[in-house]
Amino acid sequence: MELTEKTVSRTDLLDGRVLKMHLDEVELPDGSRATRECVDHPGGVCVAALTKQDELLFVRQFRYPYREVVRELPAGKRDLGETPEETGRRELREETGVTAGRMIGLGRCYPSPGYTDEVIYLFGATDLQQGETDPDEDEFLEVERVPFAKAVEWVMSGELPDAKTQIAVLKLWQLRLEEQI
Predict the structure, then answer these.
(1) Is residue 131 part of a domain?
(2) Does a structural domain hold residue 113?
(3) What is the reported pLDDT for 181?
(4) What pLDDT score does 132 carry?
(5) Residue 137: active-site member
(6) CA dist., res. 59 & res. 72, Å (int)
(7) Considering the entire predicted model, what is its pTM?
(8) Catalytic residue among 2, 132, 137, 178, which?
(9) 152 is in which domain, residue-wise?
(10) Which residues in the chain come in under a pLDDT of 50?
């Protein structure tokens, strides 16, 4: 069965600093038509930085859409022309002050494929060197060191609701179980 939808028309709705949004009319596989609301995003990166003391570096920050302080791994939006690894290294340094001697690709994820084209690239980071943080001017956060096993417990108990954080923690944990890190 053919599943591909064909774009018939596109109407741009928003051209924001981070997001763009458009409305498409599409032709469905059976020939009928429907509309699709799409959020365009430049993509992001999430980094699970593992210390020699077997801790992961987390940041806590207020996330406005949820109106709560969220604990998550360092992450951020890709800048134009950056590779995912460059973004990961930049975000890790800006948010935690840490630079990584080794970056380990953990794959990518689509956080919500029903309405956005965002792709989040996941990395593990080891051989860490501490430096100074340099957060964005509108970014207020606290850095935490959490034992790796405790982070896995939090994922499994639902105490870490952030999807990119859950995936990166569990993928890095699995690599360690397989003795690849």
Answers:
(1) yes
(2) yes
(3) 84
(4) 86
(5) yes
(6) 6
(7) 0.93
(8) 137
(9) 44-177
(10) none
